[in-house]
Amino acid sequence: MRRPVVMILALMAALAVLAGCKRASPASLEQALRWDNPVGYVTTGDIDSITKGMTYADIITRLGPTHDVGSGLHVAHYIVDETESLYLSFCSLEDVCRKDGAELLQSLEPIDFSTIGIRGLVKDIVHGKDGITMLVEGKQNPDATLNAANVTVTMQSRVYRGQTLIGGSFGFSEIKEGNTVEVTFAGPVSMSYPVMGVAAIVRILAQP
Predict the structure, then answer these.
(1) Which are the contacts of 186, defined by CB distance < 8 A and separation ≥ 6?
(2) N or C end of the chain, less CB within 10 A?
């Protein structure tokens, strides 16, 4: 009598393992691709592993959560090797990608780290688990295009004090309300007021 019970338990354990290996549920996939997610950072090797015919659901599951910059269409934005942007456009997560990794790598767009999105005063900071979101208000200048922005600073964002890089993954913790900062965004910002975007570089210019 004991052997059948053991076999049933072993079968249930195997089924549980197989269930854990299934693709993420639609609900979790929708959470992995949202306008308010930080931009996902990936490597050339990650992109190269994509094969033609994969669904975008499989691709998002493989690359991880990221920022959706689309309106109407999904546009998943990833930063590759911290220097270039990849945009994946599709209507549905079940759509099939017609390109393989090598072809996607040919579509990468260089990130212009010289363009300052906003320069201004940090008015408010909301702390999260892996970063902060800060409201920056300033004046439009020839070299700074915005006068207000909600800026998400993540563990991947580079934070400088003047010309000195603040080392480690928690440079965002050095940003305080009242600081004067300039921000370079990691890709497009949302079409709202204030705009919302993810920082590639934050430079602390002055402290209160």
Answers:
(1) 39, 79, 85, 111, 157, 197, 198, 199, 200
(2) N
In the chain, what are the domain boundaries?
A: 23-110, 118-206
Question: Are 38 and 152 a contacting pair, CB within 8 Å?
Answer: yes
DSSP string for residues in 145-206 = --SEEEEEEETTSEEEETTEE--SS-GGGG--TT-EEEEEESS---SSSSEEEEEEEEEEEE
**CA–CA gap between residue 88 and residue 182 (Å, rounded):** 29
Token pair belonging to 185: 């965004």
- Rounded Cα gap, residues 152 and 183, in angstroms: 10
pTM for the full predicted model:
0.61
Tell me the residue type at 25. Answer: S
Q: Could you read off the pLDDT of 67-93 as tens digits, one per residue?
A: 888 877 899 989 898 788 899 999 999
Which DSSP state fits 39?
A: P
Q: Does domain 118-206 have CATH number 3.40.220.10?
A: no
